Amino acid sequence: MAYNTKKSGLVLENLSAGYQKKIIVDDISLAIPRQKMTVLVGANGCGKSTLLSTLARLLQPLGGSAVLDGKAIHEQPTKAVARQLGILPQSPLLPEGLTVFELVSRGRFPWQNFMRQWSDEDEQAVEEALRLTGTAEFAHLPVESLSGGQRQRCWIAMALAQQTPYILLDEPTTYLDLRYQVEILELLHALTRRHGRTVVVVLHDLNFAVNYGDSLVFLRQGKVEGVLHEGDACTPELIKSVFDVDVHMSVNPLTGKPFFMPFRQAADRS
Amino acid sequence: MRTSLAFILFTLLLVMGAIAHLGIGARFIAPQTVVEAFFHFEPRNFDHNVIIKLRLLRLCAAMVTGAALGVAGVLLQSVIRNPLGEPHILGLNAGAALAVVLTSALGLSLPFGRPLVAAAGAAALFLLVLLFSSSGRTGLTPMKVTLCGVAMSAFASSITAAALILDEQTLLAMRTWLAGDLSGLNGDTIGSAAGLAAVGFALALWLSPSLNMLALGDRMAQGLGVSLLKTRLFALLAIALLCGAAVSVAGPIGFIGLVVPQLIRRLVSVDLRVMVPLSALCGALVLLLADIAARTLFTPYELATGVMTALVGAPVFILMASRMFK
């Protein structure tokens, strides 16, 4: 696909990554559209987590590079990258007794140093993050006293307080009930539209991915199997090649977007 | 609010504890005389001389040791993400003691003397514990670190004991020191130990924001711009310096590093920027009180201070461990 490295934005250039010479992310080239929501879709073990670990600088690339606004992220100070790119991993650790406000405040770390600990900007950023995620009302409760959905909103608030133009989220809706899943995805969508953030999110639910993603990136065995931009149609064939599952596709009459339902193997044969 | 209150409270308690500590001894000296000795020192007053020339040394030793152990406990617990992390349990104190006894038995004398030798011993033994406990497929688990620490601690102590049996002179010099004792101190050791502890404490303060992020998991911390390797290495250095300082002054004193951070975490805050300075204050206070108790509970006999801290600390450790591994 065509991309230009001079162009600002998050661009992967022939990126390979993995553990101890075992290549898991294999030569991926990809440009993430700015101020849009890009959804990463793929089967378990397709390399999504390794890709995110690499972007989080937990892993060094084995080849190629990840470029942010023209500069390779692994060649910059990690704190400088953290002011551009926020990452919410799948299961962060929650220190016991931490209040919501304290947790969200920790998102300000990249903007602080030993001499400058807490400023008005920090205060404003945290308050805005609490407001946007609807967590302000329990700001002074311990995070562990909240429900799963509320807790997840706190973590997202923390990523927002980091005030990065780019936010990566690894399966932010896992373990949440339907209402909270919709709530989180609506929030992420609003971030791209109303606040100009670029959101990259890993999702397992295909229908949510199709509904909320401005672009969809399908990964299979460490490679990009397909990229769909706005207006491109997702086909059952693509789903079959990514997940090795036969799906039935219908079109949602309200949105014109497709939705997918896997065939039940035993039932459909009879 | 709660934080400033805690700072004020612990400072007040520490001052009161210090005055009591200076007053207690073979000859009881009233608090007002203790205060007078500092503000209106009379060279010919016997009590004033006892306080400034004799008892002040022991007070400084107790406060340096307690503060160093408290802060070392906080750092250790954040680095291994385990509230059971404690310099005594994880073998750092035993390693420091072994290094001191071995150099003393071999008749070596090194620059900066005891504190630096002790710090090197603590660091070496803890690296061994980390190495052994991270082997195997499950990696570094809280259970494995704790068990490995206890085992290595026992191992180091037995070598220390063997060295002492073979060398009676060292045994005589080290016997009470090894039980964790604050008597028989000299000013030089305390001075250089305080210097090392100050460096360790400064490192701890500097690292505390990064250690806060480390508590959220490696991936989160790295994503927030923390350099994991640098943070861990400097934290280990700080821990070794603090343990070395504490052990060189008072011998291996246990459980301060366990009880103090747990107390602060429960009562005040889990924010390490608060926990580090408060643990120093609270550690100094707790060791002071333990020392007062060790000297007064069974008069005319004196217990070693380390025996006192173990009497209180060991049950706390058992309670915490049973809740954690149930």
From TrEMBL, chain A:
Record's GO cellular component terms: plasma membrane
Localization per record: Cell membrane
Cited SUPFAM superfamilies: P-loop containing nucleoside triphosphate hydrolases
Location, primary (coarse class): membrane
Gene Ontology MF terms: ATP binding; ATP hydrolysis activity
Residues in coiled coil: none
Bilayer-crossing regions: none
Span of domain ABC transporter: 10-246
Metal-binding found in the keyword field: no
Keyword terms of this UniProt record: ATP-binding, Cell membrane, Ion transport, Iron, Iron transport, Membrane, Nucleotide-binding, Transport
Topology relative to the membrane: Peripheral membrane protein
Short name of any one Pfam family annotated for the protein: ABC_tran
Keyword Iron: yes
InterPro entries: AAA+_ATPase (IPR003593), ABC_transporter-like_ATP-bd (IPR003439), P-loop_NTPase (IPR027417), Siderophore_ABC-ATPase (IPR051535)
GO BP terms in the entry: iron ion transport
UniProt-listed PANTHER family: IRON(3+)-HYDROXAMATE IMPORT ATP-BINDING PROTEIN FHUC
Sequence similarity: Belongs to the ABC transporter superfamily.
Protein name: ABC transporter ATP-binding protein
Protein species of origin: Enterobacter wuhouensis
